Amino acid sequence: MNNSLLNNYAIVCGSTQGIGLCIAQNLAKKGFNLILVSRNKKKLKQIISSLPKTNKEHLFVACDFNNPDDLKEKVSSLIKKHKVTILINNTGGPSSGSILESQKEDFISAFKMHVICSQVLTKLVVPEMKKIKFGRIINIISTSVKAPIQNLGVSNTIRGAVANWSKTLSNELGEYSITVNNILPGYTNTKRLESLIQKKSELSGKSANVVKQQMINSVPVKRFGEPEEVAHLVSFLISSKASYINGTNIVIDGGRTASL
């Protein structure tokens, strides 16, 4: 990475666990200055103290994504002083359940967390990106964008909305050398996957170990992914080598998704 890029900041959302945490750790190791966003202030402080030091201090914003106005206010105050050229939109997935059993409040909450908050953050950081004619916006979504996943009714719906929001955004920003791409992780070793396995176990009456093995068997490479593998893909998409990759979905699922 060139020094001018490393001198600016990267916002990483959902950065206290799972994929978001691995992305933050990987970028810090490469020398990036970070602004971590999550709702748990205590965990954010712990993560900040554990990250490799850069040429500037790492920062954080403690905020609940169910409150986009609070997010806007807190991030606005930071980016007035610190230039952001990389935005990683990453938010915990909605609860599992059939679409018919879901309530309207479930959809409204998920839409705020995944679409509205991504829009809020993007509108805050894009002016600086346009000014310097460089930017990277990466959205961590799900393979459900390609094929809906059983018993994830709200998630399937909202993830699709994020994907189309992202594609529209990429068309508007491409001329400024700002790329917008989606990463679609499959089964990845996170607490989110553990909860989905447990839920499947309860619904099917099968043990969690049996459910886990069935899920592994459905993946051609016969294993779950690791959060670090998603983080490595993020690092590539941020680099100048990926400057012609724009407005696309990149699946990282060991070949499980049936569609291309």
Q: Number of helical runs?
A: 9
Largest sheet: 7 strands, parallel
Domain module tally: 1
H/E order of the elements?
A: HEHEHEHEHEHEHHHE
- Cα end-to-end separation: 31 Å
Shape field? globular
| Average pLDDT reading | 95
- The chain-level structural class is alpha/beta
Number of strands: 7
Relative helix content: 40-55%
Q: Which characteristics define this entry?
A:
7 strands, Rossmann fold, single chain, 260 residues, 48% helix, alpha/beta, globular, 7-stranded parallel beta sheet, 9 helices, 15% strand
Reconstruct the topology from this structure.
Blueprint: H1 3-7, E1 9-13, H2 18-29, E2 33-38, H3 41-50, E3 59-62, H4 68-79, E4 84-89, H5 104-132, E5 135-140, H6 153-173, E6 178-185, H7 191-204, H8 208-217, H9 227-238, E7 249-252
Parallel strand pairs: 1-2, 1-4, 2-3, 4-5, 5-6, 6-7
Helix pairs in contact: 2-9, 4-5, 5-6, 7-8
Outline of the structure:
The chain has 260 residues and is α/β, with parallel strands linked by helices. The chain contains nine helices and seven strands; from the N terminus they run H-E-H-E-H-E-H-E-H-E-H-E-H-H-H-E.
